[in-house]
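Record Asp/Glu/hydantoin racemase, 261 aa.
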Amino acid sequence: MTAAKRLLVINPNTSKEMTAVIQASVNQSLGLLGGIVEATTVCADQGVASVEGSFDEVVSAYWTVDKVMSLLDAYDGVLVACFSNHASVKALREATNKPVMHIMESAVMQSLPLGAKFSIVTDSNHWKPLLEEGVQTILGSMERCASVRSSDMTALDTVTLSKQQVLDKLMKASQEAVSHDGAEVILLGCAGMSQMNQAIEQTLGVPVIDAVSSGVMAMVGLLLSNLRTSPQGMYTPLPARPDEVSVPNDGILKAYGRHSK
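=>
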């Protein structure tokens, strides 16, 4: 019998509450597949409790890369559970040929066969230009994106407010995206919104994508297809430069080919 593939899912922030929400979505998704892929869900050891913008993302990227590199030998691929074009993904694709993806990428791609236009329901207005930039990076165009709608929360609110409070805010923003922006598919644009999709879908009657679940399913496809990151061009592996790095973190040192003392 072929051994199950192993997926590492990382929450780039330090919130244990959000990590638990992510893990529940991961477990639910993989529970449908009969054990062909196993997953471990972790969070960054240090950094920020929630990623609320570009500065937070850069801080979280360092700790995400450090955590992943320290665990990577035991896994076949990595899913970064942040709904953004997270900087850690490009870095990790240089450091390993094992497939690496973030949940924004998977959610956008999953939406394309389901409708002509999608809208992203995000936390706050601060994310609107960042996610528009992310869509442009993923698709090369904003043509398929009807809108990015704020739900007037922080990322941390999605796991600290009551479920009903979060659902009410997501429902309102999703309804506006469908009614006013012409959205045919809704993408829930934060890992903390996981498992809210079914209630919104039943009310609005359009597909609603749980980004964590979409990421898990996309990674399952890559892992079972035995696909690897291309070594040509953008993600060409960099040569080991152990004498050029001066940081205290074992995972980062490993990426540069230097073993901790």
